[in-house]
Amino acid sequence: MNEMCKCVRHPLRSLYLRYYLLECCKPILPSIKTSGTPVTQMDAIKFLLLNFSQMVYSWQCLPKGSRFKGSNTIEELP
């Protein structure tokens, strides 16, 4: 799944897709209390760290103006 997410070149779409991937994989990833699952804890940690590092890279590739567009004041609104 991580390899398929690397094909997305637009940074904002990449962030959204990786967030969606994390939300979909939450029930699949093992917790500390479970054992005997097909996905080991080290695999889960590697998956999370790789996904996080790619999200940080996508965040850095965003243009500076589009990072904080949600903080418009009343004067800036049309």
Outline the structure in words.
The chain is an all-alpha fold and 78 residues long. It has four helices and no strands. The chain is elongated. The mean pLDDT is 75.
Estimate the mean pLDDT confidence. 75
- N to C succession of SSEs: HHHH
Low-confidence stretches: none
Structural class: mainly alpha
The Rg value, from CA coordinates, equals 17 Å
How many helical stretches?
4
Characterize the largest beta sheet: strand count, sense, and whether it forms a barrel: none
Strand content: under 5%
Descriptive terms for the model:
78 residues; mainly alpha; 4 helices
SSE layout and pairings?
Layout lengths: L1 H4 L5 H15 L15 H21 L2 H4 L11
Helix pairs in contact: 2-3
Summarize the structure.
This protein has 78 residues and is mostly helical.
